[in-house]
Amino acid sequence: MDRVLYGYWRSTAAYRVRIALALKGLSHDAVSINLRTGEQKGDAFRAINRQGFVPCLVDGPHSLSQSLAILEYLEEIYPAPPLIPGDAAERAHVRALAQIVACDIHPLNNLRVLKYLAGDLGLEQEGINVWARHWIESGFAVLEDAAAASGAFLAGNKLSIADICLVPQLYNARRVETDLSRFPALLDLEARLLQIPAFADAQPERQPDAVPV
Q1: Domain chopping of the chain, boundaries
Q2: pLDDT at 156 exceeding the cut of 90
């Protein structure tokens, strides 16, 4: 197959791309890159993605990195069903909500940052969780308001990349024991989204490389 997604079962960024590929009906081969063992730093994977991050989507001759860039690529090359609105103001709104997750929350609590906090800065696990929860809760407060004022989805009545970013981040929030009871609109939306096969099938525990935790 000409389309290959390099990812890791617990990577929330790879989780986003799995959802988008499924929503657009795009089949692909999945190759697991074990982030826990440092496989992403090896020469073999860096030859595919020089930055050494997952996800990396190889689509024919194109090797693409950074999950939001991949989502934008998929939208442009495979526009049906649309995941970004046609109206300029609506597009900006959807992108802003997606970027609250992808730019403001996720980078501050992904694996390499948490490893730095534990290793170089010597934080205990509870201190690391407090750090992660702070940034998650700060971003979720804004998203909760958006969901409460929205329609069927996070950015109105149409499914979008904002929803694709939200569900993996809620999964990640539970890993650091975030109190999600403060965000009832997000939880309600998540429950409805997980009824959609593309979201349900992309869940980390359903991936072939998932391991018991």
Answers
A1: 3-81, 88-198
A2: yes
Query: Nearest-CA neighbor of 67 among 212, 202, 211?
Result: 202
pLDDT digits (tens, 9 = 90+) for 67-118: 999 999 999 999 999 999 999 999 999 999 999 999 999 988 877 788 888 8
Residue 213 clears pLDDT 80, i.e. is over it = no
Cis peptide before 168 (omega within 30 of 0): no
CA-to-CA separations, 85 to 65, 143, 159, 182, in angstroms, rounded: 23, 18, 9, 29
Distances, alpha carbon 98 to alpha carbons 5, 107, 123, 129, 154, in Å: 21, 13, 30, 23, 10
User: Between vectors from CA 85 to CA 28 and to CA 15, what angle results, nearest 5°?
Assistant: 35
Of 95, 101, 1, 102, which Cα lies nearest the Cα of 53? Answer: 102
Integer CA distances (angstroms), 165 to 1, 98, 202, in order: 26, 6, 12
Cβ neighbours for 188, distance < 8 A, ≥ 6 positions apart: 147
Which of 22, 125, 106 lies closest to 67, judged by CA?
106
Class of domain 88-198: mainly alpha
Closest residue by Cα to residue 59 from 44, 39, 74, 81: 74
Q: Is the peptide bond before 197 cis (omega within 30 degrees of 0)?
A: no
Question: Would you give the DSSP letter of residue 155?
Answer: T
The fourth-level CATH superfamily of domain 3-81 is Glutaredoxin (3.40.30.10)
pTM of the model: 0.94
